[in-house]
Amino acid sequence: MEEKLKQEPSDIIKIVMFGPESTGKTTLAQALAAHYNTKWVPEYAREYLQEKWNREQKTCEPKDLIPIAEGQIYLENKLTKQANKILFCDTDLLETKVYSEAYYLGNCDPILEKYAVENTYNLYFLTYIDVPWEKDDLRDKPEEREEMFDYFKNTLDTYNKSYVLLKGDFENRMKTAINHVEKLIQENDNTYGNR
Q: Which InterPro entries does this one have (predicted)?
């Protein structure tokens, strides 16, 4: 099982969209990938949990978290091989860890926690709660957005992850994101040489 939670080695720049539900992560991941003519990694949990909801009318349970994490890393490893210099991830295992703790009394499977902390990314874009909350079959905490945002931010701080806060409308978020991506590309080119 552990192998299925491990990133495969790569020199690709990896950036994660990170934050509470309905804060524009997917929209940003898609737009940034289009801007840089590269790949983005969808959130595997959405597909997995939507199928579960359609089948059983049940939401996420603790037993779902490891299959979700394995599916997420499988997609990330697959799309890393297809990416052009940079990969945008709609989520990562650290986000899965946050949801596990927030929903299941502070609990997180130790194996999931291990890889949530060990897997590495160049930068996190922390998405703020200043966009409208949109209801769907899976979203369920509109009244706890501030608490959830604080939980996400505190997690990045606790594990000393490099992050940039994205606020404001879509154009502002994109402008901020692109500025930081350009810096990363330049640093990466200086480290590994142009390819």
A: NAD_biosynth-regulator, NadR/Ttd14_AAA_dom, P-loop_NTPase
